[in-house]
Amino acid sequence: MQQIPGEIAGALSDQRVSRKRAQEDVKLLANRIALLKQEEQKAWKKIEETKKKANDIINVRQRNADTNNYKMSLAAQRE
Fold first, then answer.
1. For residue 21, how many other CB atoms are within 10 A of its CB?
2. What is the pTM of this model?
3. Which of 21, 19, 18 is nearest to 29 (CA)?
């Protein structure tokens, strides 16, 4: 009859170990999710910066084209 309490104690010990592992896994997953969210925010920030730079380049090119058109129209008027 002494084996039954020993088996119960072993089962309880196994449950404690399993619960502790599960809690550690939850913590690890939560940390991983937080890290992935940070990386996502950095990626979105880079995307927004790239979009802004692209718009700036487009605006500069348009201004240059407008200036060139204006100069060409002035030159055509002089001739």
1. 10
2. 0.63
3. 21
On the CB side of 69, CA atoms within 13 Å amount to: 6
The pair of structure tokens assigned to 5 is: 């309490």
pLDDT at 3 over 50: yes
DSSP states along 5-70? HHHHHHHHHHHHHHHHHHHHHHHHHHHHHHHHHHHHHHHHHHHHHHHHHHHHHHHHHHHHHHHHHH
Q: What is the C-alpha separation between 76 and 72, in angstroms, rounded?
A: 6
Separation CA 58–CA 62 (nearest Å): 6
